[in-house]
């Protein structure tokens, strides 16, 4: 059975484990693909990069949930929030903050290679 909400603690594969019929599942899947595209496309990313993206998105989700708690007047730990913010920034910096172009073969190169391959 697919999860309806994010886990309280990070676990590898948490995005794939979400029910994609839910708003959260669709949103996280879209965010994951957006970050992958920003880094040149999922196919060009290493396992480590994909893992860091998943961790960054969980941290981002956790931070947003803590901010909702604060806005609703519930318990809020500023130290944990600050530590998580710094960790998220480190993940984003490791992945890269600049967009990278996808490696896309132009049509003439594709046709030339196809002709050469016979």
UniProtKB/TrEMBL annotation:
It comes from the Bacteria. This is Uncharacterized protein. It comes from Phaeovulum veldkampii DSM 11550.
